[in-house]
Amino acid sequence: MAPDSPGNRHKAFEGMATREVNGVLIGKLWKKYPALCGGGADLFNSTKFPYGGTDVFHPSVGYSGRYIRHWIREHAIASIANGLAAYNPGTFLPLTATFLVVYLYVTKGAYVVVEVQDAKISLASSGTNLHYAVAAADSLTRSGIATSVVSAPSFEHFDQQDESYEASVFPRDGTAIVSVEEYVATTWARYTTASIGITGYGYSASNPSTTIGLG
């Protein structure tokens, strides 16, 4: 296998957390494409968004930099990134970085992402855990247990919907509804009949070791 083959490039990232892989890739792209700009909240050391001290866009440093220290204001981060992208499209390619759980409050509602006829079970999840629910639903449906999937990024917005919509997402006809999330299950209690989650503060590591650590 050639040193720079796709297989070897994939192996170079084995065992790394997703954010660490993203950091490596963003670092390479940042150097190559001057149109890239943006930044993150106060979590830049954790989100692995690489930048140099002289690359900061700030009065104390100068205005030639491309990295913006947004600090703790995810609504503003999203708005600024959208504005940069909309200004003379193609001039700026904005990137943002924070933890997904912090971005959830700028999203809306809950909705069915995998719909099957006469579902016996509905799996509910959100964010980076959603693909686990989709894979599990596919396996269950193929084994004869029709399973739908719901993405629920924001209960606050979901609770503002009318009753008919809420019932179309989380049926009230006795269908088993199970939440799947690497997070505390307390918030799901009003909507589900069972939950698969965690009871501790959290677990930070690469995906494989996190799965093993959580059992």
From TrEMBL:
Instruction: State the SUPFAM superfamilies in the record.
Output: Thiamin diphosphate-binding fold (THDP-binding), TK C-terminal domain-like
Give the UniProt keywords, A-Z.
Magnesium, Metal-binding
Concerning InterPro entries, the annotation shows: THDP-binding (IPR029061), Transketo_C/PFOR_II (IPR009014), Transketolase-like_C_2 (IPR055152), Transketolase-like_Pyr-bd (IPR005475), Transketolase_fam (IPR033247)
Q: State its cofactor.
A: thiamine diphosphate
Task: Give residue ranges for domain Transketolase-like pyrimidine-binding.
Answer: 15-104
GO BP of this protein = pentose-phosphate shunt
GO MF term (any one):
transketolase activity
Q: Which residues form the Transketolase-like C-terminal domain?
A: 109-208
Q: Which PANTHER family does this UniProt record tie to the protein?
A: TRANSKETOLASE, TRANSKETOLASE 1-RELATED
Name the record gives this protein = Uncharacterized protein
Annotated source species:
Aspergillus sclerotialis
